[in-house]
């Protein structure tokens, strides 16, 4: 749970920093990264009920730093 929270908060922080930074190379470093997950949603159709599954994580440098900080904070609790 700490890993997902760190990734979400770190990626959000990276996107916000990317809006503030003027240097193009630094903006690309902070905001770009691989996308991990189901890029197209998977649908389970049971005729009575239809469920759609999909999850995507966009990992960037600040997101990885957020994961590390979240793990450290979680271990200290």
Can I get a quick summary?
The protein is α+β, with helices and mostly antiparallel strands. It has one domain (2-76).
What does this structure look like?
- The protein has 77 residues and is an alpha+beta fold.
- It has one domain.
- The chain is 56% helix and 18% strand.
- The protein has helices spanning 2-20, 24-31, 61-76; strands at residues 35-37, 42-45, 50-53, 56-58.
- Helix 1 (2-20) runs antiparallel to helix 2 (24-31) and helix 1 packs across helix 3 (61-76).
- The mean pLDDT is 86.
Biggest beta sheet summary: 2 strands, antiparallel
The whole-number mean of residue pLDDT values reads 86
Q: Helicity, in percent?
A: 55-70%
Query: Separation of termini?
Result: 14 Å
Low-confidence stretches: none
Query: Number of DSSP helices?
Result: 3
Q: What number of structural domains do the residues give?
A: 1
Tell me the strand order in the biggest sheet. 1-4
Provide the structure class: alpha+beta
Gyration radius, in Å: 16 Å
Principal-axes shape call? flat
Strand content: 15-25%
Question: SSE order, as H and E?
Answer: HHEEEEH
The count of β-strands is 4
């Amino acid at each position: 749970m700490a890993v997902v929270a760190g990734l979400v908060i770190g990626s959000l922080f990276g996107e916000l920093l990317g809006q503030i930074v003027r240097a193009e190379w630094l903006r690309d470093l902070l905001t770009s990264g691989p996308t991990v997950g189901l890029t197209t949603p998977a649908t389970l159709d049971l005729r009575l009920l239809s469920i759609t599954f999909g999850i995507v994580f966009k990992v960037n440098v600040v997101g990885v730093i957020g994961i590390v900080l979240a793990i450290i904070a979680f271990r200290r609790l």
